[in-house]
Design goal:
Helix content: over 70%
Distance between the termini: 11 Å
Largest sheet: none
Oligomer: single chain
Strand content: under 5%
Mean pLDDT: 92
Shape: elongated
Structural class: mainly alpha
Order of helices and strands: HHHHH
Number of helices: 5
Radius of gyration: 16 Å
């Protein structure tokens, strides 16, 4: 990538990479939930809490709302990663893993428990937290790899 690349192009590539990464991350969450079946996925609980006042309050259409919210968040975080990596942070898989784990930490050790959607990691069920960590690692690797490939295509 050159420094003359328009910011909107950088954001669009990051958003595309974030969408791809969130899609694969969601598959990991689905597999994790099916393997343990003792917990609900956080995007659903976050939507319930934000819109209905608590994670136990079911909403009509909550599955669609949760998918849209999760894709929107992952896409936005992908765009942010692209902007950050434009200034020297190379989008390697290792950097992507670090970014994914940082998102997990910010989300699941901070704002998600603060809104009372799920407990802090140390008080949550271990199966959900290990799945979340694994899913965020997948997100980071896919995000960085996809962004790197999209940037290489623009150079050729």
């Amino acid at each position: 990538m050159t420094h003359t690349e328009p910011r909107l192009t950088v954001i669009a590539r990051g958003a595309a990479a974030g969408t791809a990464a969130t899609t694969l991350m969601s598959a990991v969450l689905e597999v994790g939930q099916r393997m343990t079946s003792s917990w609900r996925q956080p995007p659903t609980l976050i939507v319930r809490t934000a819109l209905a006042g608590g994670p136990a309050h079911k909403l009509a259409g909550e599955d669609v709302l949760a998918i849209m919210a999760h894709l929107g968040y992952g896409t936005s975080c992908g765009a942010l990663f692209a902007l950050l990596s434009r200034r020297g942070l190379r989008p390697s898989p290792a950097v992507g893993v670090g970014y994914g784990l940082l998102l997990w930490l910010i989300s699941y050790a901070a704002w998600v428990p603060a809104m009372r959607a799920i407990p802090l990691p140390q008080h949550d069920c271990p199966g959900r937290q290990s799945t979340l960590i694994g899913a965020h690692v997948v997100y980071g690797v896919v995000l960085a790899t996809t962004l790197r490939r999209l940037r290489r295509r623009s150079w050729t």
